Amino acid sequence: MLKRYLLAACTAFMLLGTAAAQSTEPVDLDMVSRIRQEAFHHSQVMQTLGELTEGIGPRLTNSPAMDKANAWARGKFEGWGLANVHDEAFEDFGRGWEFSQASVEMLAPRALPLFALPKAWTPGTDGPVEGEAIAVAFKTKADLEKYAGKLRGRIVFLDELRAYKPGTEADFQRHDEASLEDLQEFAVPADRRDDRARRIKEYRERQDLAQAVRRFLVEQGALAAISISDRDNGIVRATGGGSRKAGEAVGVPELGMIAEHYNQVMRALEEGQSVRLRLQADSRFTTAEDRAGYNTLAEIPGSGPRANEVVMLGAHMDSWHTATGAADNGAGVAVMMEAMRILKAVGARPRRTIRVALWSGEEQGLVGSGDYVAQHLAAYPQPSDPAQKDLPSFLRENRGALQRKPAYDRFSAYFNLDNGSGRIRGIYAQENLAAMPIFEAWLKPFADVGATVVVSRNTGSTDHISFDRVGLPGFQFVQDRLDYSTNVHHTNLDTYDHVSPEDMKQAAAIVASVVYHAAMREQKLPRKALPAQ
Amino acid sequence: MLKRYLLAACTAFMLLGTAAAQSTEPVDLDMVSRIRQEAFHHSQVMQTLGELTEGIGPRLTNSPAMDKANAWARGKFEGWGLANVHDEAFEDFGRGWEFSQASVEMLAPRALPLFALPKAWTPGTDGPVEGEAIAVAFKTKADLEKYAGKLRGRIVFLDELRAYKPGTEADFQRHDEASLEDLQEFAVPADRRDDRARRIKEYRERQDLAQAVRRFLVEQGALAAISISDRDNGIVRATGGGSRKAGEAVGVPELGMIAEHYNQVMRALEEGQSVRLRLQADSRFTTAEDRAGYNTLAEIPGSGPRANEVVMLGAHMDSWHTATGAADNGAGVAVMMEAMRILKAVGARPRRTIRVALWSGEEQGLVGSGDYVAQHLAAYPQPSDPAQKDLPSFLRENRGALQRKPAYDRFSAYFNLDNGSGRIRGIYAQENLAAMPIFEAWLKPFADVGATVVVSRNTGSTDHISFDRVGLPGFQFVQDRLDYSTNVHHTNLDTYDHVSPEDMKQAAAIVASVVYHAAMREQKLPRKALPAQ
């Protein structure tokens, strides 16, 4: 195995060396050195993360805590002397929601505390409620009528029992040379034209069933609903339920329960036992009407002829509500904020304007960044077909010509961080092959802290896609996974303790250096061809 | 690596082959076959485990649920036609205790539900209480006075913050040939005479400090105390606190909190923030006075001249209280019960009497099995020195001659299962070298289900030690670890879902066959020399 690692390492270094030599991309090693000194030896990144995650707490989009986070971020940016610090609204996102406490307790056949947490945008219980558990199987709308008249005063268990899946790999993983090498492979995409139609159909059926279930549970007088966490080992993964949109059915109070307890209730029900529960969810909508959400932005202004060109960096500040959103994505926010602080601290005077954005609404479909791009950079025409209009942006077919704003041509690139708190091991070039030798040159001074790969492949599911979708260079870094997907992603364990300070310092240095070089470079970053329309 | 596995496998098989050939130990393959058929194809072991763990729940020694478990086990044994089904008391164990629900909630500086569960034998709160958190450092009794006058109405955080330790190995592990081979090595013991004196001193200091802290917290009017779970990833490990003995100080309500939440409170306190908590623990002592604990026993009587000789098998039925005691040790209980059921089902007519014991008080120091051995088999004289008398049995020096009961000479061997729910991979011979070829012969028909090793080394920490200590053959099987030490041991995750049905069936077959062969063999099992006195 050792031999393979060595070979892979050699190949990686050879590639870097060759590409950099070919590109003659300039790197300001004096500035890199100053950035590293500030990032590694005078870091504030964990202080920033602590204030955001433990001072403010979870930051569900449009919650009061998210408003606090916007105000706090503006304060930090102003304190560091950034310019043009402000929030920007994206309209009609939905209602605010928050929760403070929840408890579920089995009263019969025997006393047992059960661990569950509320789903966002579901109502609270207004004090404790008590009722018998009932298991249902709502696979299609036709299933609902089987339960008519059976749910009044009951607590409804929505999912099937799920067997424990032993954890046969370590929770915590870092890339090794072999896994980094694997990332170099690009999978030629399968034809997905038919796939889109199928996905739209499935999406509509799912939405339709979910709404019918919410209405049915309310009509039938169910007290609450419980679903099973999709993690084992006592981890709660409970994201959104109900509806965030004013006027839509929010259903009954719904909680996600750990598998170990959910299964126990289900086995008792299968044996025909009467399972009595007491349940309380101190959850509440904080606005009756839909309201705007807010991104927070700030700049280090450029100077000279390229001052009206822009390099952006960003991360989403909104989080799910069951923990403090530390890895997803307090970490990304703290690193991007720290990168701006470092650039100010080292006295960077960029040619292009460097603009940082802390997005909201990411968890609900890149809403904040998508709206920003549409307002400032470019957008496809809104579909006139109401059925298309209802679809989330990732399912819509973009029909018509892209409508570009003046800033579109002055935009260089956007850099994002949102794959947990693991250190940067490289960057996804998002099929922008012309950008690869540039990135290779920029990352070379960080090979000694583990950032070694530039890969052609795409990565998705976060805010750089809002830029990529309209043909603008938008990138997400390759990061060490740590325990992101195993323990913390969207779970009650996404807390400060699971974040590694050394990784955060490393990431802040690299981001600061990359955006600095993007702001200083002779040309804007090259663009790839627009996606087929 | 493959080569090493193959070599190890070959060595293991050669050892087995040679030893078995030398011993000419008879194996009744027809009976083994019948036992396997019943164990693998007509198993009731998971039904038994379900009734015990989910029907009855956690079984803290002397709790009402432990009484239910004793009664349930008697009913199962009687239903299977076992003889001499009865409970045996061990005196003055302590008080009963149970809890039904607990909650902790941060009210300020912001709302946050905190996850914690009560320690056994600590009092409840009699409804919710509210107070400010305070961190203390009680390293010695001298530290207490620093906090005089500062704890009234406060919730006391007893431990230091502990950094997250990434899980770099898989939670779930099975033995491979390499790890089984490692078990073949015997570590020649270091001289521990001085060590005992040090351990006694440390034990006394710990006990003394704990009692002083309990008294101090009550005197000072603290509302409750919180300690940190010694597991990461949201797992609560909260065993005993307070005192089970009537007349001793039980202290204030004490709970164990997940590290992710404990650390968060500690960081807020370190920053000088005022942290206000609401806490409720619905815990209660179920007896005012010390009461007896109970082991449950049953037999398949022998017949013929060896009928008054005994082979025993057992496992402890008591558990900790935060989960349902499935791996520790519902699994051992269900397997031992199933082994007895299988022997009845296949019509076994043993020469020696086969006696099963389901112990209580194991978690508090092998109390039930220790008392049983002292009453029926042998004991060292009770120390006259009151200081020695106060020590738990594992720290006492046995002075004076072992006092043997008549049954001592008629006792063959005791077999125990208590290392989680993992399948049997072999047996610890506990330095009884003469027993090794016998075990090798008995395990050979189970090599195809993974039971391949007989190792000379000792293993401790469970009830076979009560027999071993008085020179009687007492054995614990080598088991696959699964997620015993990582997730479930003494934690809130020790539930039915973490138990593998296939492993349970395998173990029941092997135990049934081993005890059957022990009961049928010409001679009792050989004994090793008595431990030095």
TrEMBL record, chains A, B:
GO terms for cellular component: extracellular region; lysosome. Residues 295-514 form the Peptidase M28 domain. Its main location: endoplasmic reticulum. It is found in: Endoplasmic reticulum; Golgi apparatus; Lysosome; Secreted. One of its GO terms (biological process) is proteolysis. InterPro entries: CPQ, Peptidase_M28. It comes from the Bacteria. SUPFAM superfamilies: Zn-dependent exopeptidases. Residues 1-21 form the signal peptide. Keywords: Carboxypeptidase, Endoplasmic reticulum, Glycoprotein, Golgi apparatus, Hydrolase, Lysosome, Metal-binding, Metalloprotease, Protease, Secreted, Signal, Zinc, Zymogen. GO terms for molecular function: carboxypeptidase activity; metal ion binding; metallodipeptidase activity. Homodimer. The monomeric form is inactive while the homodimer is active. PANTHER family: CARBOXYPEPTIDASE Q, PROTEASE FAMILY M28 PLASMA GLUTAMATE CARBOXYPEPTIDASE-RELATED. This is Carboxypeptidase Q.
